Amino acid sequence: MPPPSVLVLTGATGVGKTRVATALAALAGIEIVSADSRQVYRGLDIGTAKPSAAERAAAPYHGLDLVGPLDRYSAGAFARDAAGWIAGITARGRLPVVVGGTGFYLRALFEGLFDEPPLEPERRRRLRDALASLPGDALERWARRLDAAFRGGGRQRAARAVEVALLAGRPLSALQAVPARRTDLDPWYVVLHLPRAALAARIAERARRMVDEGLVDEVRVLLASGVPAEAPGLTGVGYREVVAQLTGALAAAALPGAIAAATRRYAKRQETWFRHQLHGPVLRLDAVAGAETLAREVLARYRAAAR
After folding, report:
1. Domains and CATH numbers, the chain
2. pLDDT score of 307
């Protein structure tokens, strides 16, 4: 008998995925695989909305705090690591649940990756140093010029598109169009969604809470330790805005609103991606219902589908 499909709990940032996963842990013996490209960074806790100590105590987590803020952690690395975590969880007789909203991580895990040509390390290092000096908007302009299919997504993705186009001689989108390897895992997606106004309200509240809980100090400590403002870990939503405040480009009073606005734009891109890019069974649930109610429905529907 083939193994059951992997339960994947996804949706836009702020929709309540972690709360539902925690409620699931009270109903079944689960372990959680985080599919969040920002939560892999050590020392970036508040702005990435990492699970709290209580949430981590509810179920074992995999995929948090893997690299430092100066490092890169690719979708390919996630796919390899996550496949191993899922195999281990299954071998322990527990239910793996993939939780997160990074679409490229989900695609890499379930649909495979392209074969990237070898990129000469020294040329790659010099190019990365050069790109680090470019403003984000200039970097995105170069990415669009070199790869007509580039659709944005932040500084790290723009740098990646430029790097591959210049060093491999082909646009990243062209290489990605031909998957070369695939895991034997099949997803069973649960997409949580909220009406636009409700999601915006949650995002605004979370932005205010992050600032109140010390997000600015979190970034200040990292910068003081020698982490540059353009480090991969600091290019995400929330951290970019704090860096702008600390460098005088954004007023302190405007910080929560700026974070909320950037988060709403990111959530809109996520929702578009989830509407068109998920391949496999998809259960869409209104996240207005409480976490416990949603968890019970998710588990019942997943078990019924796995029979």
Report:
1. 6-113+179-306 (3.40.50.300), 121-176 (no CATH)
2. 74
